[in-house]
Amino acid sequence: MVGRLLIGSHTLGAASLLHPLTIFGLFAVTAMLVCYALEKRSHWFILGFALACLMGSLYGFLQGAWPFGLIEFIWALVALARWRIAVRTN
């Protein structure tokens, strides 16, 4: 069927893949990837990475994957600490 994805014994339609929570999660992970790749250009990308990790954490908790949410929250704290160091050294 066109517009359907088969996962195990469940079939998901395109509408299920475009759920607002799914779009939010995709945005968060994309923002993390972009900011991480550009961290060396400016300390602002480190802050962007931290904020994207917070969004990823929120996504994880909202979709029920609390271990993912917890790890992303820890990554956000690490990135915030790195951002503070980067601001002080510039």
Name the quaternary structure. Answer: single chain
Shape: elongated
The total count of strands amounts to: 2
- Structural class by secondary-structure content: mainly alpha
Percent of residues in β-strands: 5-15%
Across the major sheet, the strand order is: 1-2
Q: H/E order of the elements?
A: EEHHHH
How much is the average pLDDT?
88
Count of domain modules: 1
Helical region count?
A: 4
In whole angstroms, the N-to-C terminal distance is 56 Å
Tell me about the biggest sheet? Answer: 2 strands, antiparallel
Helix content: over 70%
How much is the radius of gyration in Å? Answer: 16 Å
Low-pLDDT regions: none
How would you characterize this protein structure?
The protein is mainly alpha-helical and 90 residues long. It has one domain. It is built from four helices and two strands. The termini are far apart. The model has no long low-confidence stretch (mean pLDDT 88).
Secondary-structure topology with pairs:
Elements: E1 4-7, E2 10-13, H1 14-17, H2 20-37, H3 43-62, H4 66-89
Antiparallel strand pairs: 1-2
Helix pairs in contact: 2-3, 3-4
Features of this protein?
single chain, 90 residues, mainly alpha, two-stranded antiparallel sheet, 4 helices, 73% helix, 9% strand, elongated
